[in-house]
Amino acid sequence: MVTDRERAAFEAGIKLGALYHQWVGAPVSPATAETLERAIERSVALQPAVEKVKVSLDRTLMSPNAFGYSELAGLMFDVELVTRLGRARCTATLSRSEDYPLMSLVSCDETPADPHH
Amino acid sequence: MVTDRERAAFEAGIKLGALYHQWVGAPVSPATAETLERAIERSVALQPAVEKVKVSLDRTLMSPNAFGYSELAGLMFDVELVTRLGRARCTATLSRSEDYPLMSLVSCDETPADPHH
Amino acid sequence: MVTDRERAAFEAGIKLGALYHQWVGAPVSPATAETLERAIERSVALQPAVEKVKVSLDRTLMSPNAFGYSELAGLMFDVELVTRLGRARCTATLSRSEDYPLMSLVSCDETPADPHH
Amino acid sequence: MVTDRERAAFEAGIKLGALYHQWVGAPVSPATAETLERAIERSVALQPAVEKVKVSLDRTLMSPNAFGYSELAGLMFDVELVTRLGRARCTATLSRSEDYPLMSLVSCDETPADPHH
């Protein structure tokens, strides 16, 4: 009833939804952004079906508040994620689309079975 | 490159990942569980592609700490979610599987196009 | 080394810091704001030392994104909280101060001991 | 109506409540714990009134689930925090007390004003 490509797409959605709501709101500044990027990547990479994850946070949006720091906002995320399930693989992104932090399923494909087997 | 069923599966994953990491950790007790269930459902239902969402929190796991309340834990969730994209529809669940709060893609299907059009 | 007034102030800080980071990012709209306000209040009221909590979310800041909803942002909060520890009581608020969601300790006082005892 | 010691205690509470609810639920393992500790410390240190923060996560509680990782739980935290406001300073901790992640205000003191001024 469900293909491996659909499962890989589902897993990609879980990871993007989870990382967004886990990390949004964390205090951040340009000086601490890289530490946070690595912490998010390493945390996401622990989860099942993740083949690759790359997180970049837009420092230009980190305008300091009255106390000199910002909070991690959805629009700051630029994430590329690859999930794999069996022979299926999906690529998904979280990135700014005008004023919305858009999660997109970019592509799904499947490695062909070996014809000799 | 991506089918509507895959997109609907991706959207289902986003919603389950998001709700889990948004709400886990919230103070809860059997007396407040229903208010929290409705707040989660109404919040999830605002998001794109959600056709139906049902949230039940397992009160038997809400054993009071020294101060008489619990925190919402992953294992307490029993969620059923239906997403729809175009003619494709997916059903997904978040529910306890032994000691793990498992997110599952249960089914995806597609309404056939009307043959008369 | 620590007075009851200081402990009551500490408890007030815990509750405001916790509620902010627990709930920020949740999908919300003017139609669901009241359900969310009640869920937050009931959740906070479970925690130790809370005597009173009132949460109002600013609907005028809930401008719909491309998909017709908003996310709970720090600036939307208007919270009044009273904590009590022994005979000490503190009032604290979370409310918008220009472009910053400010947490303030408004007052602390102590009921005098009964002179007859 | 409020002393600097009370304000420093309030600020300490805010930081502990915030860090708890911001980070609980994040996927973690013994191999990624140190990265997460540093990310939390750097994030907390950005906030006002923080003089010192030290975060240790208890690896012995990170028992792997069916997929080989854990989630950051309240009981894993061992945090020591010092806040300062004017001449007042408070020390607070978040650490395990039996089965409860307890936040404690350990001490508050005030540097005497310089008698020559």
What would you note in describing this structure?
The structure is a homotetramer of 117-residue chains. By secondary structure, chain A is α+β, with helices and mostly antiparallel strands. Chain A has two helices and six strands. Chain A has helices spanning 4-23, 33-45, and strands spanning 27-28, 50-57, 70-71, 77-85, 88-97, 100-110. In chain A, strands 2-4-5-6 form a four-stranded antiparallel β-sheet. Chain A is elongated. The mean pLDDT of chain A is 95. The A-B interface holds A 1-3, 5-7, 9-22, 90, 92, 103, 105-109 and B 1-3, 5-7, 9-22, 90, 92, 103, 105-109.
Name the chain pair with the biggest interface and residue counts per chain.
A-B, 28 and 28 residues
Oligomerization status of the protein chains: homotetramer
The profile of the biggest β sheet of chain A is: 4 strands, antiparallel
How many angstroms does the end-to-end distance of chain A come to?
25 Å
Mean pLDDT of chain A: 95
Q: Classify the helix fraction of chain A into a percent range.
A: 25-40%
Q: How many beta-strand segments of chain A?
A: 6
Q: How would you sum up the global shape of chain A?
A: elongated
Instruction: List the uncertain runs of chain A.
Output: none
- The H/E string of chain A reads HEHEEEEE
Specify the number of helices of chain A. Answer: 2
Q: Please tell me how large the radius of gyration of chain A is.
A: 16 Å
Label the structural class of chain A. Answer: alpha+beta
Strand content of chain A: 35-45%
Please state how the strands of the largest beta sheet of chain A are arranged side by side: 2-4-5-6
